[in-house]
């Protein structure tokens, strides 16, 4: 199977969780919107705006596998997981991995809203006071609750993998969450990581895997920027 991933070409965003899974498995895939000219973003928009599709995706990322189109990051990973060897073989295990990924999805919303708490249509500078307040709340209440939960899940599973006894897409997502937080909040994250040593060790193990290491060093890995989920603002990194 050759997979086609559709996502914005200049940001990691939610599409990066899918890219990491495809890269870790050595899957045959094409990052469609990064193609040049009309074959890139215009082609993606054509799919999104196709009024004839009986089951249209709402927004990217979405994945084409043959004639099947799957949207929503967590659902894409739920689909890919067993096909790429990145999910448990039993149904209960696959549902558990999906549940954890949906919790990751909740966390991603909280992270994004630290810098855009009022509206995604406003510039950061137009909502800076609200962003400072939201960021303080995030690090005081949200981060301890989410990361405390993920640390407990990892510990209860033996400390090496989030699900089962081998790498899953949930492990890759936890790696991406930590990478993003290190970019957006380097000082705060460095202090907080002392409270979640198992998650930090998991991040390091994922980073050292040959395929992931090669991907991170390649041009396929889009750099963090001020346009994605994770954005660095000095005044928020207290």
Structure description:
Helix content is 53%, strand content 6%. It has 9 helices and 4 strands. The mean pLDDT is 97. The protein has a 4-stranded mixed beta sheet with strand order 2-1-3-4, with helices on one face. The protein folds into 2 domains: 3-84, Glutaredoxin (3-Layer(aba) Sandwich); 91-236, Up-down Bundle (Glutathione S-transferase Yfyf (Class Pi), Chain A, domain 2). With 238 residues, the chain is an alpha+beta fold.
Write the layout of secondary structure elements.
Elements: E1 3-6, H1 15-24, E2 29-31, H2 41-48, E3 62-65, E4 68-71, H3 73-84, H4 91-115, H5 128-156, H6 169-184, H7 186-192, H8 197-208, H9 210-216
Parallel strand pairs: 1-2
Antiparallel strand pairs: 1-3, 3-4
Helix pairs in contact: 1-3, 1-6, 3-4, 4-5, 4-6, 6-7, 6-8
């Amino acid at each position: 199977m050759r997979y086609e991933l559709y996502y914005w070409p200049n940001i990691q965003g939610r599409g990066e969780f899918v890219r990491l899974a495809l890269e870790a498995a050595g899957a045959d895939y094409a990052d469609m919107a990064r193609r040049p000219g009309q074959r890139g973003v215009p082609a993606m928009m054509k799919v999104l705006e196709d009024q004839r599709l009986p089951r249209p995706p709402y927004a990217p990322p979405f994945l084409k596998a043959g004639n099947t189109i799957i949207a929503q990051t967590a659902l894409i990973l739920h689909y890919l997981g067993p096909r790429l060897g990145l999910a448990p073989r039993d149904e209960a295990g696959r549902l558990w991995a999906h549940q954890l990924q949906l919790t990751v999805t909740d966390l991603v919303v909280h992270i994004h809203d630290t810098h855009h708490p009022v509206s995604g249509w406003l510039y950061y500078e137009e909502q800076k006071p609200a962003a400072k307040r939201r960021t303080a709340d995030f690090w005081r209440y949200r981060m301890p609750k989410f990361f405390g939960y993920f640390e407990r899940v990892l510990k209860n599973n033996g400390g090496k993998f989030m699900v089962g006894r081998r790498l899953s897409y949930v492990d890759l997502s936890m790696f991406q969450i930590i990478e993003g937080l290190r970019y957006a909040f380097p000082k705060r994250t460095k202090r907080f990581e002392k409270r979640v040593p198992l998650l930090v060790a998991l991040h390091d193990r994922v980073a050292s895997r040959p395929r992931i290491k090669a991907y991170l060093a390649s041009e396929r890995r889009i750099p963090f920027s001020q346009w994605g989920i994770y954005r660095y603002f000095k005044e928020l990194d207290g």
